[in-house]
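Look at a sample.

——
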Amino acid sequence: MRASRNGNIWTNLDWQTIGLFLILVVFGWLNIYGASYTPDQTSIFDFSNRAGKQFAWIIGSVVLGVVLLLIDYKTYDTLAYIAYGLMLLLLLATPFLAHNVKGSYSWISLGPVSLQPAEFAKCVVALTIAKYMGQYDYRMRSWRDLIVPFLIIGIPALVIMVLQRETGSALVFAAFLLVFYRQGMSGYVLWVGLAAVALFVTSIRWGGTPLPFGTGSVGILSCMLLLTAIEIYFICKEHYVRFQVLILISSVLGVYSICMLLNIVWSMPFNWISIGVVIALAVYALIVSAYWRKYQLIIVALFCLLCIGYTQACDFVFQKVLQPHQRIRIEVLLGMKEDPAGAGYNVNQARIAIGSGRFLGKGYLRGTQTKLQFVPEQDTDFIFCTVGEEWGFLGSVAVLLVYLYFILRLITIAERQRSVFNRIYAYAVAGIFLFHLTINVGMVLGLMPVIGIPLPFFSYGGSSLWGFTLLLFILLRLDAARTEQLN
């Protein structure tokens, strides 16, 4: 029976996805060679340069992919929890086994090669999430049903961020939110995340900018006005009373108008006034929820009250918790500081390299910015700038379109699965690839902070290549067996 199943693997495989995998891997390999090419350079197959080493990793990834396809698909479900436990132990042990690499303790040396366990942890966590959420009796009915999935994701992410000091790899675990959303998580959770980001950016970017009137900062006032708008929206949404929205807005505008008039005589503390308005609306929401049994407003009120403390804590986190290089990167990204020779150097040089390629590019192996080593990490985190310089705007768009089609194929595979385990895992894989693509290209273009995560199948490195291969080929094996599984 098992032989018969294995015999059907090659027939049922999604060969389009495998073709896209090979196109991305080969083109990435060519660009790794192009990133460091010099006229006196040896062959692309020479193991003394990175292109030659990447070729060895590519051969290894192909072999790994074949092995993953030959394993019985039930094995991935059965061993998910065991693999998670072993991976968690490895992540905890890594800081004690690893050497300091640019402030990170995430690389374990194994003779001539180094491996980063965090790259493989993403696959294991994806399988574990699929195992837990794929149980027959699991339903996402309330926030309590998210506790265990968030712990499954949060524990390894916390270990990677705190113990290994690898922020970029830890942030990738946020990609699993796509899985939760697909499985029925309320969209409000995503809005909470967006609100947290907006409050953090606003309080950091304009927290030190004084108001042109009274006392206080532009950042705190803007955050409180945002919370005020959220409270009014939900109060009127959950408890409809005629003209209530006009009364609440008029009341808020009236408070600020009176304070502006009083400011002519006394300097008014607008930070505290805006906080008081948010607290007053929260109290009103609690009264409405208690009298009319609109219990959703209790959550809204508590959320806004917590956000007041959150905005006050943002500056402490920014100044005391983040590492100096992380603070500088955020300041450069938000336009708070110009540092073209320091933290902003990578992004500035990447932009110059991409811009110099213009529409059609300078041609393969003719990129001057990369050849003269102007762009740091040009064959790893900033490999996309090599594409822009040598292949131009047209080549860059072509690469992004291939990635887009690849991710759409993953979503298509996810939607056709009969097993809940398979579908959840497939969406986890799609989310991880989408997160890597968005953040990597965004940071090269200066739209995202530089957090150092690789471009899938393009960036140099065996750990990332094998980690992505694990994710993809386990999915392809599960997909090939979908006809054998019950709904």
Summary: Residues 236 and 244 are 7 Å apart (CA to CA). Confidence is low (pLDDT under 50) at residues 1-7. Strands lie at 108-110, 113-115. The first helix runs from residue 2 to 12.
